[in-house]
Write a structure and sequence with these properties.
The complex is a heterodimer of chains A (387) and B (130).
Chain A (H helix, E strand, L loop, with lengths): L3 E8 L10 H15 L9 E5 L3 H4 L5 H11 L6 E4 L5 H14 L6 E7 L6 H9 L14 H15 L4 H15 L13 H6 L2 E3 L2 E2 L9 E9 L11 E10 L14 H14 L8 E3 L5 H10 L8 H7 L15 H5 L3 H17 L12 E8 L4 E8 L1
Helix pairs in contact in A: 1-3, 4-13, 7-10, 7-11
Chain B lengths: L2 H5 L2 H6 L1 E5 L5 E2 L15 E5 L3 E10 L12 E8 L4 E6 L11 E11 L6 E9 L2
Classes of the chains: A alpha/beta (387), B mainly beta (130).
Amino acid sequence: MRDVAVIGIGCTPFGEKWGSSFRDLFVEAGTLALDDANLSGEDIDAMYVGNMSAGRFIEQEHIGALIADYSGLSTRHIPSTRVEAACASGGLSFRQAVIAVASGMEDIVVAAGVEKMTDVGTGASVDALAGAADREWEGFVGATFPGLYAMIATDYMSRYPLTREQLAQVAVKNHYNGARNPIAQFQQEITIETVLRSSLVADPLRLFDCSPITDGAAAVIVAPFDRAREFTDTPIRVLASEQASDTITLHDRRDISTLDATVAAGQRAFKTARITPKEIDLVEVHDCFTIAEICAIEDLGFCKKGEAGMLTMEGVTALNGDLPVNTSGGLKACGHPVGATGIKQVYEIVTQLRGDAKGRQIDGAKIGMTHNVGGTGATVAVHIFGV
Amino acid sequence: MSVARFWRKIPQRYNLIGTVCKTCGRHFFPPRSFCPDCRRNGNVVEYKFKGTGTVVTHTIIRTASDQFEDLTPYALAIVQLDEGPRITAQIVCTPEDVKIGMRVKGTFRRIAADGASGVIYYGTKYVPDE
């Protein structure tokens, strides 16, 4: 297997992009990534695109070909493949690109992610997202996505000493970071009171515990590490690319409050990269809800079960802490265009490792990690990057 | 959900028909025809669940998809059936009264409908059993 490097990155601003179509979004992200790597369309050997549900959000399938076409590559007939794993679609798209390059099958590969969510109303959006869980045995009886994570929170809070304020602090911290990220959907800092005063969505989770509905796209370009310096002075090496799965329903899990797929993917990633959690300088975790960030920090092995709330309150996961978590603002503040999120996480880690994260830069960051979850934990992708 | 897709699961949704492996005694809901533990040595037969169980975790849904919006707020829980399998279900009572460890039993209820003139979906919700 060949070593793989990220040589170019691009990301649209995230938000409610009423003026931009699905096509506008991915073309913008792809163009930014190509410019960043000093490449033109003719250099691309293959594309992967993470997208959860264009079928439900814009009634469009066949996304792989559509993206290649509107990226101006139809006459080159490159292979272009859609990858779907609910909210982990982006992470899996990136992993497919890494595998394609590592195997020697392709040299220059684009991994993209895109979701255009605001062309349908909130109810339709909630229902489309519920498709990430089990439609027959969860969605059918009235389970929503916030509802499923709320049941994780209820279980967790009955077993570990997590306070409502500690949970709120996850959102406060991520909004602080988002306010320092020019592509973030939310640019305002909030307080614990903002979270606790917001309306209940699914008890105990409130509106400010939830990631928003977002339009956006991100794209990164990977290449063999040996060739990376042809395109960039700052190649970022992919040290590990791992993926794991678990039961589709939350109720069938071994432990409601532990995402075993996160544990498995995390352990494999540390083994592949031959490092320990202590060596990670920063991590982008999948905080679709505040409780998800708490679980992720623990399940990835950064602390024991039950400790993440306390560490969050103490500032350990803040920008100036020992383990900065979600410097981009995370899904909570940067936004969560589901298929694009996994690629945006790579975009953020590469930006940080290059030293380009103005206003939220982690000084001397050498090793970063991304953690992307599909559904309530049925799919998890974990990647580790190094300079 | 299309008529056929709903109709096909009526035994499970109305009457909690699952399966049990007579080799190891493990129960399955929704039903499995192949025991993952015993594999080829398994002997899986139909089984009607008693419909009694215990609340494992719960929430109150206050923002729902369009089909369920008129029901909000409603209690949703993961229930461990007495035979072992866990299911996700609505609990019919004052939502704030649902607690972890609460005993519940199944009851036949209207779950949702496809608009004013579409299919009405029935199934099993749970009520306090204490």
